[in-house]
Design goal:
Blueprint: H1 9-12, H2 35-43, H3 63-90, H4 96-100, E1 108-111, E2 117-121, H5 137-146, H6 158-171
Antiparallel strand pairs: 1-2
Length: 181
């Protein structure tokens, strides 16, 4: 923005004080050695020039400050969006009290003439079985179907992992995975 120079009231009325006559400069050969210093001191202003005006507008903040500010703003908006998503998905959940009142389908068990049950349909309601109640061969059969080397490795099967990686890369897709035990 342009700023007009400061002028005195006399200058506004057109009055200009007379200037002191300037002496003609001597010829170069006649100049003393300290002429430039003397001339500089003679024409120095009587006072220091005024300091430059302060910059207008807001000062620029550092990049770090701007990143922190925008991080806080985005964090607040992320929390608001997260709450909105949570409310949206929680609005159609069933009441926890209603889970206890669930109606169960009647259970139907088919038994042969000796009383041995060979099929059951509907919701199975009863007491859970313990591992000690099962025959010895049933847990061993379940483990052998899933991981036949389960009892020989320390919990992670390096041979099985290497085999799965090789098969997955050779087929170009996910074909095998790890144990689910």
């Amino acid at each position: 923005m342009y700023r007009a120079p400061q002028i005195t009231p006399d200058q506004r009325r057109g009055y200009v004080p007379p200037r002191a006559p300037v002496a003609a400069a001597p010829a170069y050969e006649e100049m003393p050695e300290d002429f430039i210093e003397a001339a500089y001191e003679e024409y120095l202003p009587e006072h220091e020039p005024p300091p430059p005006p302060p910059p207008r507008g807001k000062p620029r903040r550092s990049v770090t400050w701007r990143l922190i500010k925008w991080g806080i703003i985005l964090g607040v908006w992320a929390i608001v969006a997260g709450i909105a998503v949570l409310v949206y998905f929680a609005s159609d959940l069933p009441r926890p009290e209603a889970a206890l009142d669930a109606a169960r389908r009647p259970s139907l068990a088919l038994a042969d003439t000796s009383g041995h049950v060979y099929a059951s349909y509907g919701d199975v309601v009863g007491e859970p079985m313990r591992l000690s109640d099962l025959p010895d061969w049933l847990p061993k059969a379940a483990v052998s179907v899933e991981d036949r080397r389960f009892w020989t490795h320390p919990g992670i099967d390096p041979q099985g992992i290497a085999r799965a990686i090789y098969v997955n890369f050779s087929r170009g897709r996910m074909a095998q995975g790890g144990s689910t035990i």
